[in-house]
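Dear support,

We are seeing what looks like truncated structure output for some complexes. This example has two components. We would appreciate it if you could run it in full and send us the complete token output so we can diff it against ours.
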Amino acid sequence: MGGDRAPEIVVHGMAIAAERHPSARFLLVGDEAKLAPLLKQHKRAANACTVLHTPDAIAGDLKPTAALRMRRASMRIAIDTVAAGNAAGVVSAGNTGALMALAKIVIKTMPGIDRPAMAAIAPSVRGDVVMLDLGANVACDTRNLVEFAVMGDVFARTVLGLTAPSIGLLNVGSEELKGDDRIRAAAEVLRETHIGPQFHGFVEGHDITAGTTDVVVTDGFTGNVALKTLEGTAKLVLQLLRQAFTASTQAKLGYLLARGELDRLREVVDPRRYNGAVLLGLNGVVVKSHGGTDAQGFAHAVDVGMDMVVHRFNERIREGLGRIPAQPKRQNGQSAPGGVAGMGAKNGSAGGDDGERLAAAR
Amino acid sequence: MGGDRAPEIVVHGMAIAAERHPSARFLLVGDEAKLAPLLKQHKRAANACTVLHTPDAIAGDLKPTAALRMRRASMRIAIDTVAAGNAAGVVSAGNTGALMALAKIVIKTMPGIDRPAMAAIAPSVRGDVVMLDLGANVACDTRNLVEFAVMGDVFARTVLGLTAPSIGLLNVGSEELKGDDRIRAAAEVLRETHIGPQFHGFVEGHDITAGTTDVVVTDGFTGNVALKTLEGTAKLVLQLLRQAFTASTQAKLGYLLARGELDRLREVVDPRRYNGAVLLGLNGVVVKSHGGTDAQGFAHAVDVGMDMVVHRFNERIREGLGRIPAQPKRQNGQSAPGGVAGMGAKNGSAGGDDGERLAAAR
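Here is the complete output from our reference environment:
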């Protein structure tokens, strides 16, 4: 029930997703009265989805603390299905803060992970680039940045199919003395980890779209601003381009001649192609779709979730995390390495039980 | 002597600047043996400039602490001329860290200013936007952000010619509860200042190029990453555009037809048009040119410096700062309001004595 045009674009998006993933089963959580007529229009979605009815939905501007109290909200029920092992993952176009809070509290972070991170794909001259964190953590310490790098490595291997992705730490300069203590310490720790050989060092804002590294690691504040600035700038240039091509008859003719190539350009920077930010470090797959996306964009977010489930993303993250040296400064004793096997078993059973089922919380 | 192709592009840039500012006189600080042959080629620059000879120059990768010890370096001598009142401002394409450190220690910050900020202009759908800080301060507190907003207001009035520029505080969401304490506190303080009516509230990364506000205020880390991401993304889209227009004969023909309009587009996002970041909050005008710019870009940086001198930018900043409420949490007692008059007199005499003279430290 979340997003600007829910549940229409979600059901339409599920029709596209059902065609792309014929063996997957989806749980569609929301108000049946609103869903039934839409499912009649989209037979493919109707065949692939089972509706879990609830009349409650979390509003886009509800505070996370208030969202946590809505136990019958569609987003909550979708997340509960993942925590209970009845779904392998959840995709939502709803309230981001609520999704993060619910995911963290109900699905819970993996042992050894301080905080989940939000990751997404951005365009570059050299192909797709993984960026994280994108806003799950406004302030991060050294250990968080190291964990993000380890999770970003697995994400790039899983979603981009790279064998040894290069990793950069976002900073205000590429020299070793730049940035604050926290970032310089993260660089030092990273050089000593199993992904040390892939660690490129510091990168700057322009390195994201230059594709200097396959993964760009940063805190949630900077990452959120950088990704939104990137999207805004692409939009600005495309808008100027549209103005240029409608400014004169001659320019309009020029557009018609170059149209095929220009459409391909637009596709490269099309935000729908990058829709689907992933919450990493949880005991389940959680994908956040843009609230303002369309059916194609929502279907892409489902693709991202399917990739992570099919490629056993979380198991690979657990392996990666097991290889980071012990935490330098442990504030509290949350970490319980003995829990790893139990968690693994739980996730394994969720995967085995339900195949590629994803819960689509709309 | 600083920048990728110094001193060639500086002398060439001064020829362009001399033509644009016929009443200005410039001090050109550097190695006379290298400057003399270049000045022969650029008669206009030769007529407008007086050479201050020094063989020493600060390398691009020298640490600021080491740069501070080079008392005969061209950048140092240029900055000394401003501190001594023999020039109204300085323009440099050299080492940014060295320029910031020297400016802060030799020219000094205004009374009441904790730290100088770096500001520049970025493109948006609705016209030019002022962004600050862009890297002078990696970490900022509430008071710094408020000071940046006050300085950004004056900068937008002076350089963009706006009467009541709108001001946004960069955050990860536009809702009041977003971001960290520091940013939320800065928003609260700003509402109470004389620029309160112009304060729009929080803006996000995409708001920069959307032109949601005329001024975007942020800490130096985020601002640096955001501006470089913006530049990188514009570059990516223009590169894709070039590829599109050379992909087929038909597309090439299309380009030829739309060329005039496309050139105008390129101009809007041309980084040279935005060259010239300004260090605000000092007792003199300090402009940092990109090290990789060309003569046109360097001349633009001189334009920015001239604008600030002619429009008595620093006096207006002092007025604005005098109107902020007393500092909420004062760490140390640097502020000495009694010094304002003396500083004003000093700067006034620099202006009166030398007219529009700028020292170009290359």
